[in-house]
Amino acid sequence: MDVPAAANVLGTMGAVCWSIQLIPQIVINYRRHNTTGLQPTMMMLWAWAGVPLGVYNIAEKFNIALRIQPQVLTLLSLVTWIQCYYYERKWSGLRCLVMVVPVICIMSAIQAGLIIAVGHAKEKEMRWPSILMAAASATLLAAGVLRHYVDVYLYRTVRGISFIFVGIDALGDVFSLVSVIFQPRLDILVQNEPEASANHLRLEATCLLP
């Protein structure tokens, strides 16, 4: 179905949901003063996933919302990640800053370098570097989700996850899935997106089970 306006609006709404999804989790961590059950490995993997995703979205010249979304995802994932050390390992605020600021700088430098490299590749009509960036991002996101599955299996319950976060994340999945229907054409990356989002929705359904 070729309705570019609908695809753009729905895709943007999905990007907005995925940009703000971690805010409720950050807030609930702050109010509880603990992050029990929240996996720092998951948050770090999501933070790194934003690096190749940002490269892909910028190199493909997507709209501004899709270019900003990976940067917000990385930043909020790092905030959530460092909360785990602040509340659970009792790190000082200064130690947290000393740890997280260099990570941000490294991620920014890597992304900037990759944007230039992938841009040069596109000028030479080389498609595989862009595909590699998208695949790397999807792999890191999936690895983060699987890490939470391990915790659910070990403890037979869902611990530490904000259900508001889960709901907003699921809404982003739905908007993105529907936006694919209105695309004028589907490439291999877009064709794989529904399955990836469906797998994510299954995890979120697991989180809502008693």
From TrEMBL:
<feature type="transmembrane region" description="Helical">
    <location>
        <begin position="131"/>
        <end position="150"/>
    </location>
</feature>
<protein>
    <recommendedName>
        <fullName>PQ loop repeat protein</fullName>
    </recommendedName>
</protein>
<feature type="transmembrane region" description="Helical">
    <location>
        <begin position="6"/>
        <end position="30"/>
    </location>
</feature>
<feature type="transmembrane region" description="Helical">
    <location>
        <begin position="94"/>
        <end position="119"/>
    </location>
</feature>
<dbReference type="GO" id="GO:0016020">
    <property type="term" value="C:membrane"/>
</dbReference>
<dbReference type="InterPro" id="IPR006603">
    <property type="entry name" value="PQ-loop_rpt"/>
</dbReference>
<keyword id="KW-0472">Membrane</keyword>
<feature type="transmembrane region" description="Helical">
    <location>
        <begin position="162"/>
        <end position="182"/>
    </location>
</feature>
<keyword id="KW-1133">Transmembrane helix</keyword>
<keyword id="KW-0812">Transmembrane</keyword>
<dbReference type="InterPro" id="IPR051415">
    <property type="entry name" value="LAAT-1"/>
</dbReference>
<dbReference type="Pfam" id="PF04193">
    <property type="entry name" value="PQ-loop"/>
</dbReference>
<feature type="transmembrane region" description="Helical">
    <location>
        <begin position="42"/>
        <end position="59"/>
    </location>
</feature>
